[in-house]
């Protein structure tokens, strides 16, 4: 007999064991202690078969950067089903119940997640809202320009020692980048935690700081990994994140990362699709950039979600939306938006566009093009000329960028 219960804080270790089983990982005590610090048992859903945990889903309480704003978003996480209980509808039951609880709570207009497999979550209304680039390159012949102005100062330090400064800079830069999530004290401790089992043979994490005329204006979190072959050093620089407030800081950070002594390779798993590095290096194809999925967004409260973000140009359009799981989102909605604000209200006016709620998730962060979705048959134009008029509004001047896996 399976029952869905609300987890308790003391259930964390058992849930961690279930996740390790489902994702084929181990149980490292250091990592468990770090993850325990961000666990929110009150937002979990746990399925037991008798006394055994067999399925789980949870969410973190954070904000998500969206075009022109930051909105409360349920950061869905820790989703797993035991191998012995697959194909019994447990995942479907958890996802449906979670969405209903998020909607009924009325605090978060959207949910967001990283997908273990891209085919799983579209059936629950999640749309691919932000892609990412993975970079893996040989740095031997890569070059970036010399600084055009007087260079700032670069320093190396231990990340935890500079947490407060990193947090302030991150918040300033986050305001202009859709896809970045808020980080409170707990989350900064989690992000900067340096669990040895996750290093994969690399060094401890270091922070590279750039100080300009006004103080700290850029940082990079990275590791290095020693390697030698018959020809000499072949070390690797592994970049976790680069946060820069201006082009000078950005260029200085990458110039150093690409030229660290005794290294010949560099990798980064979460570069933005509009990463400025692509336009700085002398040979972009040598970066080995590959496109992958990142954030998946589910619109939970349609009028609140569409009114919360900003729009690149003025838009006034009626959209007919279908949503099988949350029928409150279904119907015709008039969206009136601009770079300074937006409203979204139910209407009986004729619709000019039609789509399902998944397509709205794909559009929400400004990464997917309205025209591209229409070409794929995901959005239908009901009144000629509407696509061309409305498409620019749903974009943004910065592409959404997944910064961290949660």
Structure report:
It contains ten helices and 19 strands. It is an alpha+beta fold. The strands form three sheets. It has a twelve-stranded mixed beta sheet. The chain has a five-stranded mixed beta sheet with strand order 17-16-15-18-19. The radius of gyration is 23 Å and the shape is globular. The mean pLDDT is about 95.
Arithmetic mean pLDDT: 97
**pLDDT below 50 for ≥5 consecutive residues: which ranges?**
none
Please report the distance between the alpha carbons of the first and last residues.
31 Å
Neighbour order of strands in the largest sheet: 1-2-3-4-5-14-6-13-12-9-8-7
* Secondary-structure element series: EHHEEEHEEEHHEEEEEHEEHEEEEHHEH
Largest sheet: 12 strands, mixed
Total beta strands: 19
Rg calculated over all Cα atoms: 23 Å
**What share of residues is helical?**
10-25%
Structural class: alpha+beta
Q: Beta-sheet strand percentage? A: 25-35%
* Shape descriptor: globular
Number of helices: 10
Helices and strands in order, then pairings?
Elements: E1 2-5, H1 12-23, H2 29-36, E2 45-49, E3 52-66, E4 69-81, H3 90-105, E5 110-114, E6 127-138, E7 153-157, H4 163-174, H5 185-192, E8 206-212, E9 215-225, E10 228-229, E11 232-233, E12 235-244, H6 247-257, E13 263-271, E14 290-299, H7 302-308, E15 315-322, E16 331-337, E17 342-346, E18 353-356, H8 357-363, H9 370-375, E19 379-381, H10 386-394
Parallel strand pairs: 4-5, 12-13, 15-18
Antiparallel strand pairs: 1-2, 2-3, 3-4, 5-14, 6-13, 6-14, 7-8, 8-9, 9-12, 10-11, 15-16, 16-17, 18-19
